[in-house]
Write a structure and sequence with these properties.
- The chain is an all-alpha fold.
- It has one domain.
- Helix content is about 80%, strand content about 0%.
- Helix 6 runs antiparallel to helix 7.
């Protein structure tokens, strides 16, 4: 058993996801919800999605990439964007709770199915056949990225007025949704 799969997966995931739509979504979610709910929901999502890819790669199976997961993620981005934009202003931002965890989990799960990181970890597991080391490297990388993301989002959430955050968050979700939709259909 070698530590090479860990040492390979950690920088690959860090560099692949740094500034990617997943980290941007975590930032946007963290401007509205509590850090712990967003962090834990998002981390569980990538653990499950990438874990399944790693297991499939280790078993030398195949992932059915299809366009359905990307279309669902795009729809979810657009729905969140329009919902944020169109809902009436409330006096106080929600800070925690099951809906923040569930929203984070669902959004990140749908975004990551068939994503380049899942494909990368799948390929690493085909090569190394060391699923635990690859998953560990992947989770350490995501923990770092999401920790930075929730910190930035929380900071912005405390410093910027609600209407600016709402418009910026809605614009980010809409932009990500449209870009994902264009990539999926084009």
């Amino acid at each position: 058993m070698s530590h090479l799969p860990f040492l390979a997966s950690l920088p690959i995931v860090l560099l692949t996801e740094l500034g990617d739509k997943t980290q941007l979504a975590v930032i946007a979610l963290s401007t509205r919800y509590g850090r712990l709910a967003v962090f834990s929901g998002s981390l569980l999502a990538v653990c499950l999605v990438d874990g399944l890819g790693i297991l499939a790669g280790t078993a030398s199976g195949t992932i059915l990439p299809g366009k359905i997961p990307s279309l669902l993620a795009s729809f979810l981005f657009l729905t969140f964007g329009f919902w944020i934009l169109l809902r009436k202003e409330e006096g106080e931002r929600p800070k925690a709770g099951g809906s923040a965890f569930l929203s984070s989990f669902l959004l990140i799960s749908l975004m990551e199915v068939g994503d380049k990181t899942q494909i990368s970890t799948f390929a690493l597991s085909v090569e190394y056949r060391e699923p635990l080391w690859i998953l560990l490297g992947t989770m350490v990388a995501y923990s770092l990225l999401m920790g930075v993301g929730v910190t930035i989002g929380s900071y912005l959430g405390r410093r910027l007025p609600e209407r600016i955050l709402r418009k910026a968050s809605a614009a980010l979700f809409l932009l990500l949704g449209f870009l994902l939709l264009l990539r999926t259909l084009g």
